Amino acid sequence: MGTFFSDPGWLCLTVTALLGGTILCKLKTSPGQVGRKVVCLVGLWGGAYLISLSLFWGLVLFSLLYFVMYTYFSGQELLPVDQKAVLITGCDSGFGYGLARYLDELGFTVFAGVLDEQGSGAEELRRTCSKHLSVFQLNITNTQEIKEAYRKVKEKVQNKGLWAVINNAGVLGFPTDGELIPMTEYKRCMAVNFFGAVEVTKEFLPLLRKSKGRLVNISSMAGGVPMQKMAAYGSSKAALIMFSSILRQELSKWGVKVSVIQPGGFRTNISGTSQMWEKLERTVLDNLSPEVQADYGQDYILSERSFLRLMKTSSDPDISPVLLDVRHAISAQSPFAFYAPGKLSYPWLCFASFSPTGIFDYLSRKIYTYSKKMPRVLSTSNWEDEAM
Ligand SMILES: NC(=O)c1ccc[n+]([C@@H]2O[C@H](COP(=O)([O-])OP(=O)(O)OC[C@H]3O[C@@H](n4cnc5c(N)ncnc54)[C@H](OP(=O)(O)O)[C@@H]3O)[C@@H](O)[C@H]2O)c1
């Protein structure tokens, strides 16, 4: 009690009240992860204070933290929208569709690339958005379409330049054990989630370098956290994270800032439809050798649908955390290198990076058990005898 209400104690309380007030006011205008980082900074400051023994050290710590926070907050100011031009890929549905509408409402000039120009998502964007939004065909695995998109964007932006590219288009593939995923699915995930994003980036970088703009790549929590059944998807998203991190370093000399978004689970079209699942199940079964098929059993493969169903029902229908983070990445003076929107996405990423592998694997097995079903051979008691 004595220490708490000593001179440094009062100083601490006053300063906490002042800083707390400032932070709360700032938070209203600073979307994304600002809140989480602020809580960490204030916690650090409080903790540091508790171990400080005198008014002198209290003041030193306070000045230091005030400086850090001042620098931090001045980078969080949002630049004016000013009809800046942004290109988004994969706007037919989900995040891309939501982002196109949200950024259009905020006053950006949006170039919305879609996989199907005649599809319902494209139609809806044309119908509901302002005249500053243009929808065009852009399959990111098709070099010709990427080049054509570049030509159209360059022609439209002219001297105004392109401010941001948001590589959003992506596919999940069929989540199952890595041994069972057909090579065609590994290649498809890489083709869209990695090579597609790389090719779009390379094509549009001359425009971004000119505007000293932003590159935002939508990866996934699965690109940083090893998740069972996600060997194809997770690997392609991990590759995208590494690509983005290297470009972040290389492009800093040009004034281009690069951010990676690693969302957790949100309810979009990513988990597919039952027709898609049926088709993918067939592909998986057709590509298995008789030996592997006998070891796993058809029932095990067909039970993977429960994972997709769970994914659909347990994910968050509100995608606004992703939209706010992308907006922050393209608008803040100093955007973050990484964003992790979604419940538990950030703690999981930290846990996967810093915890001992044994503990991580144990907990991961406990938490991510989607079905009790085991491969056929493992569920029969004589498996170990057979293996001998
Ligand atoms: N939803 C989540 O929980 C979650 C979590 C982490 C990361 N992500 C990532 O977020 C991004 C957006 O996904 P989403 O959740 O919004 O799913 P989504 O609704 O399926 O959106 C993905 C979009 O990409 C399009 N697309 C697929 N292949 C393409 C190609 N070759 N060229 C151009 N566009 C293509 C899809 O078109 P079609 O609809 O016509 O196929 C769809 O419009 C993806 O990169 C995904 O990996 C999502």
Automatic annotation (TrEMBL):
Entry keyword Transmembrane: yes
PROSITE patterns cross-referenced by the UniProt entry: ADH_SHORT
Pfam families attached to this UniProt entry: adh_short
InterPro entries xref list: NAD(P)-bd_dom_sf, Sc_DH/Rdtase_CS, SDR_fam
Transmembrane segments: 49-73
Coiled coil: none
Keywords carried by this UniProt record: Membrane, Oxidoreductase, Transmembrane, Transmembrane helix
Family statement: Belongs to the short-chain dehydrogenases/reductases (SDR) family.
Protein name, as recorded: Estradiol 17-beta-dehydrogenase 2
Organism in which the protein naturally occurs: Rangifer tarandus platyrhynchus (Svalbard reindeer)
